[in-house]
Design brief:
By secondary structure, this protein is mainly beta. The chain contains no helices and 16 strands. It has a six-stranded antiparallel beta sheet with strand order 1-6-2-3-4-5, with no helix packed on it. Strands 9-8-7-10-11 form a five-stranded antiparallel beta sheet, with no helix packed on it.
Amino acid sequence: MADIIISNDLTPGQIIDQDGTLLQVLDTLQNKTAMRKMVVKVKVKDLRSGTIKDITFGGGDKVKVCFLDKKKYNYSYDDGTFFVFMDNETYEQVSIPKEQLKRESNFLCDNLPVQIISYEGEIMGVELPVKVALTVTYTEDAVKGDTINKPQKDATLETGYVVKVPMFIKNGDKILVRTDTGEYDSRA
């Protein structure tokens, strides 16, 4: 499903279709001088390849804006080649290649609720919750007296992801990790 708007009305977050390529608008800049027509410079991210580039539109150019479908699924398991997600209402399973979810794989744990994003039946990716609770599988013990300037240490999580945590975190603790930055947030 798509709508046609003029380039002057583009805002960050919108998805545009340019010759069959789905692009997410990251930033826009409108430039109008006395001797030229308006120029709209748009920074976009290709949803299939992940590349970021700049494109330029003339003021008033028509642009096709697309709407992506989002559906709730829960992460089930990793079969070696694919990550498998299940719809809890219909028990339908969806498999997504591991190469497509490299960054997201750091936060996937059993029964994690996610949103699978698709466009006309093609899976574009997975939207994770803002914070995920993960168990610390290995971290060094705190050194007594090392408390100046909020010291941190490395901790390996159940997914294999390594994150910096405060010194009081121990093996077996559950912590919240932000999925947007990949940083420690708090204890769970």
